[in-house]
Amino acid sequence: MRIEIWADVVCGWAHIGKRRLEKALASWEGEPIEVVWRPYQIDPSAPARAVPMTEMLRDPMADEALRACAPGLSPVQNRARVAEVAAAEGLGSQWGSGWRAGTLEAHRLIALAYEKGGAELQDRVVERVLRAHFVDVQDISDLAVLTAIATEAGLAGEAGYTASPARAATRAGESDRTGFDRVPQTLPGAALTRELLLVGKAKGVRTSPTIVAGGLALEGAQSPETIREFLEDASRRAPRRLPAEVERLRHAESLLDQRDPLGALTLLRPLMEEHGADRGVRMLAARAYFASAQLNRARTALDALVAEAPDDSYARHLLGRTLQRQGRHEEAASHLTLAAVMTPDYAAG
Q1: Is the pLDDT of residue 67 over 60?
Q2: Which of 54, 154, 167, 280 has CB atoms 3.0–4.6 Å from 162's, for a disulfide?
Q3: Burial class of residue 330 (count of CB atoms within 10 Å of its CB; 0-12, 13-18, 19+)
Q4: Per-residue model confidence (pLDDT) at position 108
């Protein structure tokens, strides 16, 4: 059975959860389990150049966000509480993050570790990244730090890192941009990491860590006993795996429902390349084009869909709305009228 851990490597509970999961698996007597780490971001707006945690804690906006994470506790009190739990789990008394650091490059390295060496290599890389952040108090957004970790794992060349940590550090400081635009998409694993972040969103992952297995999800760093019970339930349920293309289509539709049409189009891109004749794929793409105001692309896709199936009232209605938004009101009116005749509910829309 495969279990996925959706987590951010700057999340203290992810480090604690890893230890608790290891304790749960140490006494596990069921079927073999493969643990795969997946990316989640608790602070996607973190700057490219990390800032000291003490500086972040003085930021009123950060203070408000941290208080929301731990009602009734100040950020300082919450950090102390998490550090106590970490010490009890054997992570050390001097445990604690020192930097507000972006994690996209770390997630890219972790994703590549699984692609190149499977779960065992990925686990070693995750452990090393977590130790760097929480024990060694290093800046894991610094490519010099990640290059050292990648080199230890034999992944420096695979990850596209320079052999020189000094040059890596210079590259890390070249931009203050936040988000995926600061990780060149030509780097190995960059597109994969972006897709995985979108898949997590599509699946409804909303906190770090979240364990997903057998169609079930367990949020937070639960006790080893709770994790074992969860794994037993997941093992009994183990749903039939859908074809990868169907899963991708469903994830894209979920993102569109969450008002992320650009994310939906990102997941749809391989399907459009490989299954471009499929009407379901084309319709979902047309909806995403419309929702993201790519009206020319939406009109082109919908023109073809309506020509192929003139009695498809939804495609005709969406084409009419697209033309309407383009200011082509006469053309829009004919499609909207026909759609309303076929499906009266569209008359109100």
Answers
A1: no
A2: 167
A3: exposed
A4: 96
Write the CA distances from 76 to 70, 128, 232, integer angstroms: 11, 26, 37
- 341 half-sphere exposure, CB direction, 13 A CA radius: 9
Quick check: helix, strand or coil at residue 326?
Answer: coil
CB 211 within 8 A of CB 4: yes
pLDDT in tens, 151-170: 999 998 888 886 554 444 43
Whether a cis peptide bond, with omega within 30° of 0, leads into 209 is yes
Domains of the chain: 2-237 (3.40.30.10), 244-348 (1.25.40.10)
Q: How many CB atoms lie within 10 A of CB 189?
A: 24
| φ and ψ at residue 328, rounded to 5 degrees | -100, 70
> Is the pLDDT confidence value at 336 over 50?
yes
Task: Kindly state the tokens that stand for 26.
Answer: 């140490």
Question: In this structure, which amino acid lies at residue 227?
Answer: I
> What is the structure's pLDDT at 187?
83
Distance CA 312, CA 228 (A): 50
Q: What is the pLDDT of residues 169-190, one digit of tens each?
A: 434 444 443 344 445 567 889 9
Q: What is the mean pLDDT of residues 72-83?
A: 75
Share of the chain above pLDDT 70, in %: 86
Amino acid residing at 17? G
Predicted TM-score (pTM) of the model is 0.88
Can you tell me the distance from the alpha carbon of 103 to that of 38, in angstroms, rounded to the nearest whole number?
12
> CB neighbours of 176 closer than 8 A, spacing ≥ 6?
47, 48, 49
Between CA 108 and CA 170, with CA 167 as vertex, the angle to 5 degrees is: 80
Q: Which comes out higher in pLDDT, residue 132 or 240?
A: 132
- How crowded is the C-beta side of 305, counted as CA atoms within 13 Å? 27
Name which of 23, 4, 31, 58 is nearest 218 in CA terms. Answer: 4
Count CB neighbours of 188 within 10 A: 18
Confidence of residue 71 (pLDDT cuts 50, 70, 90): low
* Helix/strand/coil for 134: helix
